[in-house]
User: Which sequence fits this backbone?
């Protein structure tokens, strides 16, 4: 009887090992059906897109332009052997409007924040709200510490390519 019971438990364990990945895959696929995803119409706001076109003209020969770049792609939290817990890392939840990278080595040269006019009853910056008051200070301090210059440019109807070239040089 004990042998039969042990054989039963071994059979159940083997079946679990075999069917568990299949069950997880089925549950994951079912879960996707309950989530509602839609494609975003645009990566950038109208102001950002208009500025991007002028920026391309101003820097095309020297820099790659990466819009909407997550801050963690530019900086990382220093790891200290004495720390038991890492500081709260905000770089994964913040992004910059535009980052310029040197074409020769793909190294960061400059960050540009486009200061947009408020839209839709006070919401601005084209991605859910105006610049938070502390965001500019946080970005400026962090980027300055790691040696990446940040430039703020006010959104406008028209941009002067030569002026943009001067500002980013």
Assistant:
């Amino acid at each position: 009887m004990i042998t039969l019971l042990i054989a039963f438990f071994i059979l159940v364990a083997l079946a679990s090992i075999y069917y568990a990945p299949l069950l997880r895959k089925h549950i994951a696929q079912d879960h996707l059906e309950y989530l509602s995803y839609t494609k975003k119409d645009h990566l950038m706001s109208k102001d950002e897109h208009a500025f991007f076109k002028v920026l391309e003209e101003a820097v095309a020969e020297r820099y790659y332009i990466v819009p909407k770049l997550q801050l963690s792609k530019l900086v990382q939290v220093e790891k200290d052997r004495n720390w038991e817990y890492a500081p709260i890392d905000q770089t994964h939840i913040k992004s910059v409007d535009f980052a310029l990278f040197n074409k020769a080595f793909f190294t960061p040269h400059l960050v540009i924040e486009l200061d947009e006019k408020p839209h839709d009853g006070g919401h601005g910056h084209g991605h859910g709200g105006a610049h938070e008051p502390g965001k500019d200070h946080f970005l400026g301090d962090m980027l300055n510490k790691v040696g990446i210059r940040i430039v703020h440019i006010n959104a406008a109807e028209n941009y002067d390519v030569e002026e943009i070239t001067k500002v980013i040089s």
Observations:
- Residues 119-131 have pLDDT under 50 and may be disordered.
- The CA atoms of residues 68 and 150 lie 14 Å apart.
